[in-house]
UniProtKB/TrEMBL annotation:
Gene Ontology BP terms: peptide transport; protein transport; transmembrane transport
Species whose genome carries this gene: Levilactobacillus spicheri DSM 15429
Sequence similarity: Belongs to the ABC transporter superfamily.
Sequence ranges assigned to domain ABC transporter in this UniProt record: 4-254
Protein name listed in UniProt: ABC-type oligopeptide transport system, ATPase component
Gene3D superfamilies: P-loop containing nucleotide triphosphate hydrolases
Length: 326
């Protein structure tokens, strides 16, 4: 069952200029994307900086005005404010941000930061509210003495835990996690990802997991969409994307994952350079004459790629042959 269905979503930002501050152009930050998130899954949205991931995430939580298209939740389009209100959408869908320092109010104590959504959506007595905040701190592995501290008194990883505690306070159905570990050291990244997984199991939450790094997404996501210049260039299961990538942009993101095995580094660098060369030389094959991605074409029930139909099928057949020979 799908928890969210995104259909042909567009978010175009106006560019104003001149004495009268008129709209002279627009930035197509999100340019007609469609994908579904299933209940209980972690769906990855991956692309380089500026590809439109955050704008998509903010549209899903209702923080960004949508130009056209729809986002369906329980069959209703929540790009319309009245549907968000009617469905308690702002309680059911929460967001975790990359920059935990600026997303947590520095003047508020942790108790008040975590209690804020409870005060907005549930009207508990003071005692019950405190009990809930203590339970939430416990869930994310922080001690009770955190209650009276301020965000700057915590490490980046601890602040991200506080952000998660606030996000899960109202028992949401979906959390949009926008680069939740990108600002953290590798060892802390693993801890935060692990407890995000645990919370998902315990609460039955779905995540829209936004990242520029296919290396991080591999351990979290069952299905992945690759975003480039406001469009989706490839959608597939983890196996489709990591083991049978078809679009050159996906291959380029995969080649950018650092190689940890020292013996493999030279070969990895050579293949990264080779992919980069194809990407530079074959823009006209992989993008239309405006430099935009083609519409997605399905090459299997789970795998779609943004290429002209014939080329998509040829590449998919070559990939099947390669796998059979391997
Ligand atoms: N408020 C805005 N007004 C105008 N243009 C914007 C606005 N917000 C984002 N953009 C532009 O929209 C495009 C997509 O931005 P977005 O932040 O969604 O990308 P992103 O993939 O999340 O990148 P990053 O990881 O760097 O945040 C970029 O070209 C960006 O400059």
């Amino acid at each position: 069952m799908n928890i969210i269905e995104i259909k042909n979503l567009k978010v175009h930002y106006p560019i104003r200029s001149g004495f009268w501050n008129r709209i002279t152009d627009e930035v197509p930050a999100v340019d007609g994307i469609s994908f579904n998130i299933r209940a209980g899954e972690t769906y990855g949205l991956v692309g380089e900086s500026g590809s439109g991931k955050s704008t998509t995430g903010k549209s899903v939580v209702g923080l960004e005005k949508v130009t056209s298209g729809s986002i369906l939740y329980k069959g209703k389009d929540i790009t319309k404010k009245e549907n968000r209100r009617r469905l308690d959408y702002n309680r059911d869908v929460q967001m975790i941000f990359q920059d935990s320092l600026s997303s947590l109010n520095p003047r508020k104590r942790i108790e008040d930061i975590i209690a804020e959504p409870l005060r907005n959506f549930e009207h508990l007595s003071k005692e019950d509210e405190k009990l809930r905040v203590l339970q939430l701190l416990d869930i994310v592995g922080l001690d009770a003495d955190a209650l009276y501290k301020y965000p700057h008194q915590f490490s980046g990883g601890q602040r991200q835990r506080i952000g998660v505690a606030r996000a899960v306070a109202t028992h949401p159905k979906l959390i949009v996690a926008d680069e939740p570990v990108s600002a953290l050291d590798l060892s802390v990244q693993a801890q935060v990802l692990n407890f995000m997984k645990r919370i998902q199991r315990d609460f039955g939450i779905s995540y829209l997991f936004i990242s520029h790094d296919l290396g991080v997404v591999r351990h979290m996501c069952q299905n992945i969409a690759i975003m480039n210049r406001g469009r989706l260039v490839e959608i597939g299961t983890r196996d489709d994307i990591y083991n049978h990538p078809l679009h050159i942009y996906t291959k380029r993101l995969l080649a950018a994952i650092p190689e940890t095995n020292v013996d493999q580094r030279a070969a990895h660098r050579a293949s990264r350079l080779a992919v980069e060369q194809v990407y530079q030389d074959e823009q006209a094959t992989y993008y239309d004459h405006d430099g935009k991605a083609f519409p997605l074409v399905a090459v299997s029930p789970t795998h779609s790629v943004a290429l002209p139909e014939k080329l998509a099928q040829q590449l998919a057949q070559a990939e099947t042959k390669r796998e059979a020979q391997a």
